[in-house]
Structure formats: structure tokens, C-alpha cells
## 1
Amino acid sequence: PAPSVDFRTRSVAAFFWGLKPTGGYGLEVVGITYAGGTARVILNLQSPRPGAIVTQALTSPYVILELERVSRVVFTEPSGRVLAEARE
């Protein structure tokens, strides 16, 4: 069963990176900051190295997070480049 979430005090956000042609792709949450009703989730997007041996199957990397209650979530790379954002 899914974990219990108190939506009065918590939020849930998801980032879906999309369909990838092979294995070897991944997401790592490297930080979360909160300011002014916004959660900034910093993601490290991982791709296979050229020539790497990877699973020959379609993959869809994603992450689902429980956060403090916020009205806006911004997913960024460590460089600050915005990947996606959502509002309540």
C-alpha cells in the first residue's frame, strides 16, 4: 500500500524524465530548499557513458517525493537550469 500522507501539512511532487532508449539513465535528488512557499528540488540527471554496457530495454526514470506543504515546486539541475515546475 502507498504510504499515508497528511496533505494538510505535506505535499507530494513527481518528476518524470521521459522515455529513454536503454538502461543506464537515473535521477538523484541532491538537495531540497524551501523559500516563500516554493520547494526547489535539485536533481542530478545521470546518463550512460558512451560505450557503456547497458540494458537494451526502454526505461522511464522518475522520482516521487514527499515535501513540506508548498504551493509551487521547481525541479532544477545543480547548475540552476529549470527542468520543470508545478503549482498547486
Note: The beta strands are 10-16, 26-35, 38-46, 62-68, 72-76, 82-87.
## 2
Amino acid sequence: MQHTLSMLLFTPLFVGLLLLLVPSAQTKVFKWTPIIVGLAQFAILAMAFKSYDISLPGYQLMEQHSWLSFQLGGNSSFQSDYIVGVDGLSFPLVALSVIVLLIASVSSLSIRTQCKGYSVLLLLLNGAIFGTFLSLDLLVFFIFFEFMLIPMYFLIGIWGGKNREYASVKFLLYTLLGSLFILVAVVGIYLSYQSNGVHTFDIRVLSNIENAIPDGVLSPDSPSVGRFTFREWAFLLLFVGFLIKLPSVPFHTWLPDAHVEAPTPVSVVLAALLLKIGGYGLLRIAYPIFSAEAASFAWLAAILGAVSILYGALNALASRDFKKLVAYSSVSHIGFVLVGIASGTVEGIAGAAYQLVSHGFLAAMLFLAVGVIYDRAGDRTIANYSGLASRMKCFTAFVLIAFFASAGLPGFSGFVAEVLVLFGAFGSPFLAPWIGGAATFGIILSAAYFLWTIQRMFFGPFQSAIACSWHDLTKRELVMFVPLALCTLALGVYPQCLMNFLNPFAIHWVQSVIHSTPR
């Protein structure tokens, strides 16, 4: 079916704008519209899957339309096309987005104030997320990448906790700084590449060094400024810009504050989807365009990944706030993405992409679990609770699935992702053995803080410092947890369902980015 991907992208944007015309008193309309849109996107995803051939490594379901083209004077022209498509990397992330956004919409039924504004912003965020995963034009990608900041800023700043203004401003400043770095690189890239004599933002063209203008600022023989060439500086700008979004140590400090203050549905979207865009940007844009430069900085990516794994795990181990523990665990788990990419191996790249998808489901479950406790008690302090399993057996079962999967136990999705990354790290000719050793120790630490949290909060005699009704999961909460748990178990028991997408992509990525680059 034609225009399938455009339907995924523009349906939430169009409906979100239509909601502006609905009177504010129609609360039920605002609460249920994002869910209906999510169900429609699920149906569209099913149609896209039916047309997708998992054996092919290239882009599929392509659409391309000219939307911005004009002369700049002389023989120069400006051109940017609307190009969307999916491959073995983006299709699983699109599927993850459909599921998580639908579940976040169900979770948003608990929002009580300013429902109209909340629903409009959530739908706009929905469309922006799909725009980043589907766009194959660098300018269009950047527009959606930037546009995500607006609804996320207001969703945290209006519906967040008591320090929401501080958290939302900090989130905005950090991500704007990263976007500025990316924008500078995008301008340089555009001026340095041509296709048939015309400057272009087409990522497929930009990924081929032969399309670089010989005397362009980012030509293969670009001059040096300080220790690095212009191409190396451009790669570092993209690298840091996407690391801020990922986020990696030392650019992670906005994340705990944003998560702690954001309402549960927004935390779910932030952790499960927005963080993945950083890793996606590295795999889709930074490394393919600057493959030789990325090779010279593999050591930096590996070190930052290893440090993120250990630093995030140690902070999670020391956290007293349940939500902050989950936030720091995200920093640790995302570190595996960096290590996998830095390895430059098929196993490492497949593991990094697997971790992006796996952690998306796990992060959603973990933040929903935090929301369940906070909805009942209004408090997230770990020490205030024990023996919750005796009162909330069903809830405890889902928490155990999320914790065991996050700790990397066999039979769960996290195990597959982390094992692939470790195979890549230890088998990489580009990384020192201690990188793999640090990642292994990080897995041990993650098991320690998750198991310790289980022991403190869920086992032993029941105790609660907060007087409240500790009832088990409601039907609405079950609707949110069951799909995530099933996806986590499916990816752990039968990883081939995801590897069918990722393996052709990883092989093609390594051949085009690593093997074509002299090290």
C-alpha cells in the first residue's frame, strides 16, 4: 500500500491539530483520541509489515516528494526532499514506537488537568518521533528532531512534579545545545556534498564519500584546525549532539531530573523512545557519513560506553528514589549501545540495535511500575516499603520480569542484547579487552541493584510508611503491562524474530561503514 509510512507519521499530527478545534470541556474526547490514533497506527504498522521483505538489507516502502527547491544565485540551488523509508534498523524501532505510544496513551487516562493541551502535545510528540525514525532527508530529520523538544518541554513543565520548571528548562537547554552541534554539522555536510551537481540532504547520498565535493569544506582532504581535520570536527559535533540525546556520561545529567519530575506516561515515552533516537542517529547518520573519522574515535566511544555502564549502575545502586534508580539504570544500559557500535563488528552492531529495542520495552515496564507505586502511595522512597509481593502478587510478577530482563538473565530480551554486545566487544580488533571486562562487570552491578531492590521492596514482611490502599493491578494497568511483558519474553525466548530484521542491517552496515574504511 502506498503512503503507509506517511500515514503513520501524519495521522497523529493531523488529529492533534484537529483537537485544537474541540471545546475544552470534552474531556473524554481528549483522553480517548490518542488511544484511537494509536490503534489506527497499529493497523497501519500491520499493513507495512505485510509489505516488508526482511531478507533485504536496504530501504523499503520508500516515498519521495520534492518539497523545498529554489535557486540561490549563479549555478547554486537549495533542495530538500520529503523522503521516508524503513530498513532492518528503523522498522523495529517504528514497531516499538507504535506499541509504546499506544501504552503511554492508555497510561495518560490518569491525567486529570488540562486534558486538551496534554492530548494535543502527546499527539504532536507522537508524529515527531515517527518523523525522526522514518526520514531519510537530513534536513527533515533535523526538523522533526528539533520539533520533539517543544511538546516534551511542555509535557514536563506543566504536568510534572514540584520541580518541573527546573527539570524542563534543564532538559531544553541540554538538548538545544546538542541540536546546535548537529545543526552546524548539517550545514557543513550540505555544502560539501552534491548529487548530479545539486546540493542535497539525502542521507543515502551523504553516506557515500564519493559524492563529496573535492574542494568542499568537508572533502576527504579537508584541512586541519588544531589537532583535527574539518571532517573530524564535524563528526565530533554529530557525535556529541547524539550523545546528549542518548544520553551518555558526561552529558547525562539532564536525564534523572527530567525522569523524576515527568508524569509517568511522559517518562515512559522519554525512556523508551526519545533516548533511542540518540543511538539511531549514530547508526544512521554520524557513522555512515563520517566512517573514516568515526574509526579514529572508536576508542572514545568505547570508553564513554564503558564509563556509562559502570557510572549508571553505581548510581542506581546508591539511589534511594525508585524512579531515580530506574533512570540511572537507563544510563547504564544505553552504555551497551555505545560499546556495541564502537566494536565495529556484526555482533556488536546487532547487539546495539537489539539493546535499543529491548530497552525500549523494559524501560516502559520499569517506569510504569514506578507509576503504579506512586499512584497508590504518592511516594517513591525505596526504604518506605517492604513485602509488597504479599499485597500485589500480579504486580510483583511483572516487576520481576522487568527486573530479571534488565539484569540480563537468560530467557529475557536483555540477555540477548548484552551477550551480542559482549561478543562484539571481546571479538573486536579495535577495542582493548578491558572494555568488554567493564561491560561484564556492569552486568553484575545491574543484577546487584535490581535484586537488592526486589529484596527490599517486595519480599519480607509487609511494611509501608505510607497509609494507602495497596490493591493489585487494575484492568487498565494490566492492559499496559501484558503487551510489554510478552514482547520482552518473546525477544528473549525467540530472538530470531528481531534478528531477522537486524542481521541483514548489521552485515550491510559493517560492510559499508567499517570494511570500506582503512583503519
Note: Residues 346-377 form the longest helix (32 residues).
